[in-house]
Structure formats: C-alpha cells, structure tokens
Amino acid sequence: MSKPVIVALDFADDFECINFLNQFPKDDKLFLKIGLEMFCQFGYPFVRNLRERGYNIFLDLKLHDIPNTVKRTCEMIAQWDVQMLTVHATGGAEMIEAAKKGLDGSATKLLAVTQLTSLGQTELANELQVPLKSQDYVTHLAKLAYQNGADGVISSALEVPLIKEATSTNFLCVTPGIRPKSAQVGDQKRVATPAHARSLGSDAIVVGRPITQAADGHQAYMNICKEWNK
Ligand SMILES: O=c1ccn([C@@H]2O[C@H](COP(=O)(O)O)[C@@H](O)[C@H]2O)c(=O)[nH]1
Fold this sequence. Notes:
Elements: E1 5-8, H1 14-21, E2 31-34, H2 36-52, E3 56-63, H3 67-77, E4 84-88, H4 93-102, E5 109-113, H5 121-126, H6 134-147, E6 152-154, H7 160-166, E7 172-175, H8 194-200, E8 204-207, H9 209-212, H10 217-229
Parallel strand pairs: 1-2, 1-8, 2-3, 3-4, 4-5, 5-6, 6-7, 7-8
Helix pairs in contact: 3-4, 8-10
The structure holds ligand LLZGTKA7.
C-alpha cells in the first residue's frame, strides 16, 4: 500500500458523515479514521458498514487500561478486520504487550500514541510535570512501544526522524497534527504541512478538519494528496 492520507471522520452524525463520503468517487477506497466521537455514538455496526463498503479503517480508540482489560478488548477488535488500532503508550510495557497478544492472528497494526499532538513543551512541563524535552519524551515512549511489540506509533511528524533512528526504519510513524499552510491550527500544537511530514519520513498522515470542514472536502483531500505525494 502506498503511504496513505488517512481522513479523520470526526462528525457529529452519521448522515453528515455519509454525505461527506458520497463526494468521493465510488472506486476511491479511502483510508478512514474512526475516533471516539463517532465510535461512542455508532459503535461497531458503523465500523462494519464502512469496512463492507471497502474502506480501510484506522480505529482510533486510544485504549488505556490495565493489561487484562486491554488484552480482552483487543481480542474482540481482532475479529473486526480493521487495519490499525491505537493504545496509549503511557499504559506501559505490560499493557502494550497485552494489546499485541490480544490482536494475535489478525492483520490489525497496533499503534501506540506517544505525546498527543495537542500538547506542546509547555503543557508537558507545566501540566503533566514531565521533566523531559518533548522530543525526548516522545522518543522514549516510541522505544517502549517498539520493545513491547507495537507496530508503530502516533506522534507529530516533527519527531519522526528521531523515532526511526531510535527504533527501526520499518517502525510505523503515523502522524496527525497536519496542517496545510493556509489551514487553521486550532487545538493542535505540534504541526507540520503534508510536504514537511513527507520529507521527515512519516508513513501516513492523519487529516481531519482541513478536509472535513472544507467547503469542498474532496478538493481539499486531493490538494493534500498532491502535496503529500509530490
Ligand atoms: O496525538 C494525536 C492523536 C490523535 N489525533 C487524532 O487525529 C485527528 C486529527 O484531526 P484534525 O482535525 O486534523 O486536527 C483527530 O481525530 C484526533 O483525535 C491527534 O490529532 N493527535
């Protein structure tokens, strides 16, 4: 699969979401991210419906619980034929390992969220009281994820070269916090343009509002793909 632009489907209702998807040609098999907002409302039937329509699915549930609970949840999700699933790396070594065990036998890639892209250096130091430079914290969590069986991480594009160096070039770096030059940054702190993310080595970018809230979502997606694939 070529490096995808993953569209974050953060819609308040499924009708709005399907209208959005209907702008795209039928044979355009998009890579879609279903996050907490839509999953909490529509659950697994919504995921199954989109899989049956042929879309690739990144299920962004950011699991974070004791190892036994996460393992049992992953065993269930392993049957759903989704392409990617997230847990929080801060759940620790045993939890990451348990998540991977739970996904055994499925093709679902396990991605560990490092430092949310909505948190910058100031929030890390003042709110979370983490006495590390952001890039060192992200690299530390990426190594933890790598050593405990995750297939990759979620980070900002800015940390990708450091993560690849600390783990492996094959360790997936999927990066949200993507903003084309003209887009509003909103609540994101560690951002990069699609072209910058590409040059830093991201394996996939995740883009939500710059596409889903654009006047012409399909055109916005095409523009981002063009910049990403250049
Ligand atoms: O660190 C993270 C982890 C996940 N996300 C998710 O990605 C999208 C980004 O949406 P935008 O509208 O492009 O900001 C969103 O669904 C987040 O939940 C993230 O942004 N950062």
